[in-house]
Amino acid sequence: MLFKKSMLLSILLMVALLFVSSFSAMAQNGEVEIFSWWTGGGEEEGLNALIELFNENYPNVEVINATVAGGAGSNAKAVLKTRMVGGNPPDSFQVHGGAELVNTYVETGLMEPITGLLEEWGVKDKFNQQILEMSSYEGEYYSVPVNVHRSNIMFYNKAVLEENNVEPPTDLASFKEALAKLDEAGVVPLSLGDTNKWPATQIFESLLVSTLGPDGYNGLWNGNTAADDPAVREALVHFNDIMQYVNEDHSALTWQDATQIMHEGEAGFNIMGDWAEGYMKTLGWTPGEEFGWMPVPESEGTFIVITDTFGLPKGAPNPENAKKWLKTIASVEGQDTFNPIKGSIPARLDADKSKYDPYLTSAMEDFAEDTLSPSIAHGSAAPEGFITALNDTINEFITTGDVDEAFENFQKNHEEYVQ
Amino acid sequence: MKRKHKESLTSIAILSPSIITLAIFVYGFISRSVQISMLDWDTFANFMRKAKDYVGLENYISLFTESRFQTDLWNTLYFTLFFIIGCLAIGILLSLILNNKPRGGYFFQNLYLFPMAISFVVTGTVWRWIFAPGRLPNNPRGINLLFEQLGLQNLQWGWFTSTNSFLGFNVALIAVIIAAIWQYSGYTMAMWLAGLRGIDQQLIEAARIDGASKWQIFTKILFPIQKPITLSAIIVLAHVSLKAFALIYAMTGSGPNNVTDIPAVYMFEATFRSNRYSTGSAIAIVLLMMVGLLIIPYLVNSFKEE
Questions:
Q1: Where does it mainly reside (chain A) (predicted)?
Q2: Which residues, 6+ apart, have CB-to-CB distance to B217 below 8 Å?
Q3: CATH fold group of domain A29-148+307-372
Q4: A:B CB pairs within 8 Å
């Protein structure tokens, strides 16, 4: 009898709880599912701060934080593709602006244009126009850029350079001299960790900008520059020269390992996107104190951007809430909440500079003045087929050193995937 | 008669679920892969349009002319060869030692089998740490550091980062082969040990009385008796080597100049990283045919024996 009573009671309790929870769900205006691969240090905290800001503005909307970890986003991209193709899109998702968005999802008709929304919110002219242009297709914009990283940036260990009487280089010739000098002194001149291939491709894309100039480089993707331009070959030659000065075990290391080699005073230079700056800060360095930075030689005036953007897929289950999310991240408040924590700069030009460290403020100045170019290695410049093909070409080229073969492969891949 | 009819009905009823699922999920998907490998689905747009533009064997032809895929085939050949030889040699040696029932034999028998219980991903990650060469000569890591502390500096080398090759054999594969042998030699040992325990001791004693040496007993008696076991071990090991994706992916990736690349890794990257669905399918079909090349003669042989 006693047993039955307690049973009845627990069932009643459960039913009551169910009611309460369903009522509380009814009180809300539903949910919004945000898909990203922000799971690492800094970026996860940044995303959480953004979600908090969103909840302050829209307390009735519950954010479902759908993240997929691993592989610098490549796992998440595979999951996203399956969901988009299967007709089960999230409400909004992280995607690199440029080809990764346009070529994969916009041209195939899976995205809603958001030009009207940007105008309605009065934010369209607050962004760097070149970056909005990257995610546009046939006159319509398709995503809101949240943050900006730079890939053609080079860091150096100030102490190592000083000890060996090496000045920060001013052009590619003096860069090679500096590398040779460090090599003679027995330190690793340039640290590289390309076990995932793209860090080497990223060096090559910076050198492409150095030899082609920003307009020539951008022309590769819109048809104004031919793939057999002699400057492409020149970039390969420079790349080959520079690769003589990297650590021998580069193919066993990740980019973090390479940054760490420089941090430990074992290497002089490191070419890596400016997320490495955030990593050096977590290792205990202060920007400008222990390490300095400069654009990859002869690519000054060009800012190779990697930008995370969010768009509005067709068939999103909660499009109205997704628009609220986009409005939040497009606001100056949203951008200034996320970026200082993530260690990137905002895509808007009217952000509060006092919130950013010395490196980031210098990057913000360059971002406002430089010509922007899309990154190949991070999916903004060319379709994914071209990226992997170029990764393979560069990966083979590092070992073979055969400039003509690599030049030929570059043209072949460009013809097959870009045009 | 009626009972027989009923029996066959039940057997059909019991078998049909597995036959149907096999037909759909194995043979159906294989034929779908064959179809995709002959289409032009090497961009995401074509894939989305589900365009049915057949290009025949074009994907296969371009695959076989690619330097990466050619390297992959050489790597598979050498990896399979050395992996099987290594597993057989070490496994058989261990089983012969353990068959003499040395002290602690039971303990070691389990110890050698344990690696099989670990997934390739774990093996790959651990051996990656062991074989990461570090920066020679100043800052060696892993096994190179061990060599330095033992005063064996001349044994230090780049392991899986080495880009040297010899008759098409990329020496970087040695590191991967060692890891794979470590994991699977216990398997050959267990198979052989089970067989050895079933051999009539009188046979061996008779040979011994006739003055046969240990080597003769092994080559003239044990090895011929164990031939079917060895053969099935080879079949299993060979198809493991074709599926070593997880080991390579966790341990080295495709490596500099593809020195440790295998078709399975390329298939994954082509399909899921670069949206080249047709190329990926073509690699999958080539892999399937390679497995078939190994297994079909074995199946034909065992059917004949029955």
A1: other
A2: B204, B207, B208
A3: D-Maltodextrin-Binding Protein; domain 2 (3.40.190)
A4: 86
